[in-house]
Amino acid sequence: MKRPFAASIWREGEWYVAQCLEVDIASQGQTEDEALANLKEAMELYFEPPCATRPPLLRTIEVEVGAA
């Protein structure tokens, strides 16, 4: 399934930075097109389902809340 995302692109020194506005992911490249392609790849990896080789360990933790 494909979904559109908005990306902001700007130049920092000799690099172009592309950042997704809906998800906090960014990448860079020497051109705008390269920065966007790198951002697309980073987002595809981010949304790729995890492939665990063994079941994860589940633990319970206790956290103090509302303490002043």
Short description:
24% of the residues lie in helices and 24% in strands.
Kindly describe this structure.
The chain has 68 residues and is α+β, with helices and mostly antiparallel strands. The protein has a domain at 7-47. Helix content is 24%, strand content 24%. The chain has a three-stranded antiparallel sheet with strand order 1-2-3, with helices on one face. The longest helix has 16 residues, at 32-47. It is extended. The N and C termini lie far apart (46 Å). The model has no long low-confidence stretch (mean pLDDT 92).
**Approximately how much helix is present in the residues?**
10-25%
What string gives the helices and strands in order?
A: EEEH
Please summarize the sheet with the most strands.
3 strands, antiparallel
Low-confidence stretches: none
What is the number of E strands?
3
Strand order of the largest sheet: 1-2-3
Q: What is the helix tally?
A: 1
Radius of gyration: 18 Å
Report how far apart the termini are.
46 Å
Shape: extended
Write down the oligomeric state. Answer: single chain
The share of residues in extended strands comes to 15-25%
Q: What number is the mean pLDDT?
A: 92
Structural class: alpha+beta
